[in-house]
């Protein structure tokens, strides 16, 4: 799903499809956030200086991302669709039809990944 989304983002960028670009960028960012490892508690004692065994240099503190299962990926995209649908309903209630329609269109873009047409 993620590979297809990235390929479709490239296509949307070339086509200047703002709705698809916004939806795909947001969904891919949400997936990246879901893959982030939990933050480790840092020593906040206030003491400076060298720490024995500490790493130094570019990339020395990089941590591998957590792999998501296909169902977890789907859950992230489903949450993105729900958020857009709820926000669209609120915009409609407030009389902001243009914003509501844009969010509905973004939700529809993401729905295609949840319910692909053969």
Automatic annotation (TrEMBL):
Signal peptide: none annotated. Pfam families: YqeY. Coiled coil: none annotated. Residues 52-61 have a biased composition (Low complexity). InterPro entries: YqeY/Aim41 (IPR019004), YqeY/Aim41_N (IPR042184). Residues 32-65 are annotated as: Disordered. PANTHER family: ALTERED INHERITANCE OF MITOCHONDRIA PROTEIN 41, MITOCHONDRIAL. This is GatB/YqeY.
């Amino acid at each position: 799903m993620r590979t297809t989304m990235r390929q479709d983002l490239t296509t949307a960028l070339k086509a200047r499809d703002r709705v698809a670009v916004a939806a795909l960028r947001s969904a891919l960012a949400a997936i990246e956030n879901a893959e982030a490892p939990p933050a480790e508690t840092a020593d906040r004692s206030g003491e400076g200086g060298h720490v024995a065994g500490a790493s130094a240099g570019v990339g020395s503190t990089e941590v591998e991302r957590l792999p998501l299962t296909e169902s977890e990926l789907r859950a992230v995209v489903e949450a993105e669709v729900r958020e857009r649908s709820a926000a669209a309903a609120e915009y409609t209630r407030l009389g902001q039809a243009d914003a509501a329609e844009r969010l509905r269109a973004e939700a529809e873009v993401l729905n295609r990944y949840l319910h692909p047409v053969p």
